[in-house]
Specification:
The complex is a heterodimer of chains A (about 525) and B (about 190).
Chain A (H helix, E strand, L loop, with lengths): L15 E5 L3 H12 L4 E4 L14 H8 L6 E3 L4 H4 L32 H5 L14 H15 L14 H13 L4 E2 L38 H7 L3 E4 L3 E7 L5 E7 L5 E11 L2 H11 L26 E6 L15 E2 L15 E5 L4 H7 L7 H8 L4 E8 L8 E9 L5 E6 L4 H20 L4 E5 L34 E3 L14 H20 L4
Parallel strand pairs in A: 1-2, 1-8, 2-5, 3-14, 8-16
Antiparallel strand pairs in A: 4-10, 6-7, 7-8, 9-12, 9-15, 10-11, 11-12, 13-14
Helix pairs in contact in A: 1-7, 1-12, 5-12, 6-11
Chain B lengths: L16 H14 L7 H17 L1 H18 L8 H11 L3 H14 L3 H7 L75
Helix pairs in contact in B: 1-2, 2-3, 2-5, 3-4, 3-5
Classes of the chains: A alpha/beta (about 525), B mainly alpha (about 190).
The complex binds flavin-adenine dinucleotide.
Flavin-adenine dinucleotide binds next to helix 1, strand 6, helix 8 and helix 12 of chain A.
């Protein structure tokens, strides 16, 4: 008996297509494959939360949705000091982190697939061109944008300006930026795809009870379920992918909610646990044949971990802003997203509106701080405006996810350790971005500004990267591992480099493309 | 202050009211908000006491910490004015005691309806229909900005001339070599020394 929560139940001994993780990558893949008539088993470590379960409270929601299993950190990044056991802010629930995400959906730029060629050699960075280019992904970007209902494209109207955006956009205009707007943003400005328009409630990080925000939970999961071909097993955490004598993946071992181990036979395995759990699972699956972990002949599994530049700038005004009213991230300035080495760094960054409630503000605005300087930041809450910086960080071989055998999770498995050092390019870009953000707010009369250090990583990328040659990376241009022909990686781990853009649109586009490839390979029996 | 716990046995510890009052004062001095009434500070102190009840190490740290405050105050910490009290807290900033109080306060004081109201935050909104008709765009001290990209204009993806520049300005020195990114050691342009 499996723990499927849908009408469909696939036998554990039947060699199934097994997808591990139901987030942006895994959920999209499950929807695409089932809609092509291909049955799948989805193993999801977290519970099946519904929109009625969500709450308009930051900590309560966080404790309900977040991946809280222990992790450790090392390296010179501030996270290792501020949040040593919370390197990343991710969800453990059906729908993955798309239930938490805000919705910004910029595309990669053409050159961002070719950074080794365009940026040249950057000392200490492990740059590599993607084996695909914008021309390969463009049609899938179109499909992903339509699926996600991105505003500003394909006839979807823009969201209206909320208070936080008014400050942000006026500041942008004053400093001479041109390319600012309220999107692209995957939340409905008007009814679309059976989901209502945003009511601007401001709790989009908390799941969005109104269902105006695209997530795997509102769209792909119910549709996949309707095909009758989805066997979805929540609270089922994969702990190993096993292989046969030929070195092909043949099963997935997973733990149910009571800690009992199960085996699901597999003819094809797609791994989409996000960029910390995906390499962890590969490393946990080492055998004499794959001594350094499954699919790791290159030694690149877990390496080149990227998390985007990130940082936040707050502006404090003498009049009310009430930034928390309305869509959290419906505002972007793109002018700095270009590649312009004259600024003193390679790559670019976006500025995007952000808002936190007092509970998260207190925890994140200046971690470790207290006293009157700290409380004055919160006293200005009503008059605060906020923007988040998201830019390309350099892949480095030494930034990596490894198994920490000194620390065990509740199942007795070694926890992942996330090591990260900022590259000098990252530091130069962050400085530039902080200063640019401050200028935006000063231009509209900010009395003060504050720079907030990176939050636990919401964008986690690169730990099983795509490469033309097997020795440079883990997967090929379809996301198929170079070493194991029936093992695919279907999440942001495959990013060869991170670009400036928020990653989810690209993860979804890659998954749609991968689903076509897998369906085709199955049809022609090449897998 | 006498020993902050009521019972000689630390395992059955219950804090004296005096110890509780000291703790409330600590929280207020460390996180001063003129606009916040006493209730949230009291609730936060009680939360700290409850957490200490559940963890031996916090219990020990809290008991020790409260005693040291009085020692550093040269009497009763509660008698110090704001500035003097803040100075004492700065001296214990690095202790387990203060770290525990700080963390617990940050997580709880600001997760409180009364504090939200004082700071001007309105809390849950979905059940009231969000802010679509309740002021999501009521900021009136700036003009209404455009929400779309400028028509007919394209952001240049690469700055003019960038491709002629061999590589970006930032060079860190050191770093490992890799197949696709040969480092400085495999460059044949090193300075030649005799
Ligand atoms: C607050 C916040 C805001 C964000 N805003 C944006 C934004 O505006 N734009 C944007 O592009 N991105 C945004 N993101 C990032 C976005 O959510 C992620 O990029 C995206 O969800 C990643 O997709 P994924 O498929 O790689 O992983 P996830 O969506 O994280 O899904 C992974 C799933 O796998 C499950 N899993 C992991 N390990 C196992 C295992 N061993 N067995 C079974 N299941 C497992 C997890 O429980 C999870 O459900 C945001 C993230 C956060 C936290």
């Amino acid at each position: 008996m499996t723990a499927s929560v849908t009408g469909c139940s696939i036998d554990q001994d039947e060699e199934a297509i097994v997808i591990i993780g139901s987030g942006a990558g895994g959920g999209t893949l499950a929807h695409e494959l089932t809609s092509k008539g291909i049955p799948v088993v989805v193993l999801e470590a977290g519970p099946y939360l519904a929109h009625d379960d969500y709450v308009n409270n930051e900590w309560e929601s966080f404790n309900q949705m977040a991946w809280l299993d222990p992790r450790t950190t090392s390296g010179s990044w501030r996270i290792a000091r501020d949040f040593p056991n919370l390197p990343a802010w991710l969800v453990k629930a059906v729908g993955g982190t798309t239930t938490h995400w805000s919705g910004a959906t910029p595309r990669f730029k053409a050159h961002e697939f070719k950074t080794r060629s365009v940026y040249g050699r950057v000392e200490g960075a492990n740059l590599l061109d993607w084996p695909i280019g914008i021309e390969d992904l463009a049609p899938y970007y179109d499909r992903a944008e339509k699926a996600m209902g991105s505003t500003h494209v394909h006839g979807r109207p823009p969201l209206p300006a909320n208070n936080n955006y008014k400050v942000f956009a006026n500041g942008a205009e004053k400093v001479g930026y041109k390319f600012y707007a309220t999107g692209p943003y995957a939340t409905n400005a008007e009814e679309y795809d059976g989901r209502p328009a945003s009511i601007q409630d401001g709790f989009n990080f908390q799941g969005d009870k109104n269902k105006s925000k695209w997530s795997i939970l509102v769209r792909e999961m119910p549709r996949a379920e309707k095909t009758g071909l989805l066997d979805l097993r929540p609270r089922s955490q994969a702990v190993q992918v096993t292989h046969d004598a030929e070195g092909r993946a043949d099963a997935v071992l997973y733990l149910d909610k009571d800690g009992n181990l199960h085996r699901q036979a597999a003819k094809l395995v797609c791994l989409a646990g996000n960029s910390i759990e995906t390499p962890r699972l590969l490393l946990l699956s080492g055998t004499p044949r794959f001594p350094d972990g499954l699919a790791n002949s290159s030694g690149q599994v877990g390496r080149n971990y990227m998390r985007h530049l990130t940082g936040t700038v707050w502006g404090y005004f003498d009049k009310p802003v009430r930034m928390y009213r309305g869509e959290t991230m419906a505002g972007v300035i793109s002018d700095e997203s270009t590649h312009d080495p004259d600024r003193g760094f390679a790559g670019g960054y976006y500025m995007e509106t952000i808002s936190l409630g007092p509970a998260f503000m207190a925890a994140f605005v200046e971690p470790g701080a207290w006293g009157p300087d700290f409380t004055s930041l919160l006293d200005s809450y009503t008059n605060s405006a906020g923007m988040w910086i998201v830019g390309e960080d350099m892949p480095q071989e030494t930034n990596r996810v490894t198994l920490n055998t000194n620390a065990k999770d509740e199942n007795g498995l070694p926890v992942p350790n996330v090591h990260y050092d900022d590259h000098p390019n990252d530091i130069a870009m962050r400085e530039h971005a902080y200063a640019a953000g401050e200028k935006v707010y000063q231009a509209v009369g900010a009395q003060g500004t504050h720079r907030t250090a990176p939050y636990p990583s919401t964008h986690n990328l690169g730990t099983a990267r795509m490469s033309e040659r097997p020795e440079d990376g883990v997967v090929d241009k379809w996301g198929r591992t170079h070493d194991v022909p029936n093992l695919f990686i279907s999440d942001g781990s495959v990013f060869t480099t991170g670009a400036a853009a928020n990653p989810t649109l690209t993860i979804v586009a890659l998954a749609i493309r991968q689903a076509e490839y897998i369906a085709d390979q199955l049809k022609t029996q090449q897998i | 202050m006498v020993f902050p716990a009521k019972y000689p046995s630390l395992n059955a510890m219950e804090m004296t009211e005096e110890a509780r009052q000291t703790l409330i004062r600590v929280v207020r001095v460390a996180f001063p908000h003129e606009c916040v009434p006493d209730g949230p500070y009291e609730r936060t102190a009680d939360k700290i006491l409850t957490e200490a009840q559940n963890e031996t190490w916090f219990r020990v740290a809290l008991t020790q910490g409260l005693l040291s405050l009085n020692q550093l105050a040269g009497g009763d910490f509660q008698d110090l004015d704001d500035e003097a009290a803040l100075r004492v807290l700065r001296r214990v900033e690095g202790t387990e005691f203060f770290g525990f109080v700080r963390r617990t306060t940050v997580l709880n004081l600001y997760d409180d309806d009364e504090v939200w109201a004082a700071l001007g935050y309105e809390g849950a909104s979905f059940d009231q229909g969000g802010y679509i008709n309740r002021g999501f765009n009521d900021l009136d001290w700036l003009p209404d900005p455009r929400i779309d990209y400028p028509e007919g204009e394209q952001l240049p993806e690469i700055a003019p001339g960038a491709l002629d520049v061999p590589s970006p300005a930032v060079e860190s020195g050191g770093g490992e070599d890799s197949t696709n990114q040969p480092g400085a050691t495999s460059s044949d342009m090193e300075e030649v020394k005799k």
